[in-house]
Amino acid sequence: MLLYELLTGALPFDRKALREKALDEIQRVIRKSTRRKPSTRVTQMGPASTDAARNRHTEVHRLASELRGDLD
C-alpha cells in the first residue's frame, strides 16, 4: 500500500470510508477488495490527479503512461 501511495499520491481505498469501519472490517476490506491499477487510479482522482502529476514534475496522462506495465 505504501508503494501504491508513493506512485499515485493516493491510497487504493477511500480513506473516509475506512475511518468509519471497525478494525476487523478495515482488514477485511483491504484483503478482499479488488484494487484499481495505479495507472487507472491516477487518472480518476479528479483535481488530485493534477496535484499528483505536478508533484512528480509531469502531466497526468504521462504519469499514467509511466505507471502502466510492470508497476500496474
The amount of beta strand, in percent, is: under 5%
N-to-C CA distance: 13 Å
Residues in helices, as a percent range = 55-70%
Q: What is the number of helical segments per DSSP (H or I, 4+ residues)?
A: 6
3D shape: elongated
Indicate the low-confidence ranges by residue numbers. none
- Main sheet: strands, sense, barrel: none
Helix-strand string: HHHHHH
Mean pLDDT: 89
Structural class: mainly alpha
What is the CA-atom radius of gyration, in angstroms? 13 Å
Number of DSSP E strands: 0
Compose a concise summary of this entry.
The chain is mainly alpha-helical and about 70 residues long.
Helices and strands, with pairings:
Blueprint lengths: L1 H7 L6 H5 L3 H10 L5 H6 L3 H9 L4 H8 L5
What does this structure look like?
The radius of gyration is 13 Å and the shape is elongated. It starts with a helix and ends in a 5-residue tail after the last helix. The protein has helices at residues 2-8, 15-19, 23-32, 38-43, 47-55, 60-67. With 72 residues, the protein is mainly alpha-helical.
